[in-house]
Please model this.
Amino acid sequence: MTEYNFAATCLFGLEKLLGGELDALGCHRTETMDGRVYFRASLDAVARCNLQLRTAERVYLVLGRFPARSFTELFDGTAALPWEDFIGAVDAFPVKGHAIKSTLFSVPDCQSIVKKAIVDRLSGAYGQSWFDETGIKYQVEFFLFKDEAALMIDTSGIALHKRGYRPAANAAPLRETLAAALAMTARPRSDILFWDPTCGSGTIAIEAAMLQTKTAPGLGRQFAAEEYPWIPAEYWDDARDEAISAIDEESAFEVWASDIDPECVSLTKENARRAGVSAYLKVFEADVRTITKPDRRGTIVCNPPYGERLMTPEAVEELYRDMGRCFSGFEPWQIYVLTSHEGFEQLYGRRADKIRRLYNGMIPCSFYQFFRPQMPKKGR
Model:
């Protein structure tokens, strides 16, 4: 089967996890850079990747990559690509993109050049100089990085982090793809309780349940490429059938999701219902500062307030001190905490065993991981 070039984008820091997901789907990685992974796969991968990738933001079909140090190179390189193989004579093809560390830094100018080059190519193919663009929408994207251009067609449409189960969220929502990455890093198991004691809208708990039950994150939504006539409809039918048959409905996995705010508790219950994982979640009201360890093995994964959108900085610092005291009673549980506060370890009262740098939207954060037994302090 013919292989095509693709790119999957992700939040900074999730590239390794995304690469592992692509490997598991049988795709062949060709290059990894900040925020994206290039790979090769057959065309049916469009459906499988959009449905099953948990950490990807979008999946692109890459038509070509070439040097673009001048507008002439950008125009000629774009016009040389076979756009007519994908875009019809009446179809829409809006252009957007990014330019990073490149000679061509003006995004509006690059948009104009790419658009003109595609029109030039399609004019020659269809024998027309004007395009109404009333048909299927193909979102064209360019990515300029260090004077190399990648020209792509978006196959996802709405960003993949929008699974469809969370139409409403609390004041500081965590992106679903990042929540999935946090859960994946904690390596949930069916015999270990998974608890998010600052659950907010329940995203971490829901993503953990979807991960452990092998529920594909894209099953509840549609994708732009489902309208593309050059992707057979059976690819989507087969991918959905495969995803549905993979769900482990007999999983013994259990997730606790708690929050001090009763509105968050209600929201989490509703989102879990929409995601189809209510059976695996126990959702209840509790103060993270006073919770106690159940008599079983477990893992805590949480995204407490940072003091930027929720709570004052002073209140957040006191919260972290209280969390440190409370969580010390959970030994030997593993603890995972995401926050943007640079002084978290000092406030929490313990150095992390591992720290992963991530981004929550535009906020640089650290994912503090405590998984080794804590050594008793001298004098005890």
The two ends are 66 Å apart (CA to CA). The longest helix spans residues 107-126. The chain has ten helices and 14 strands.
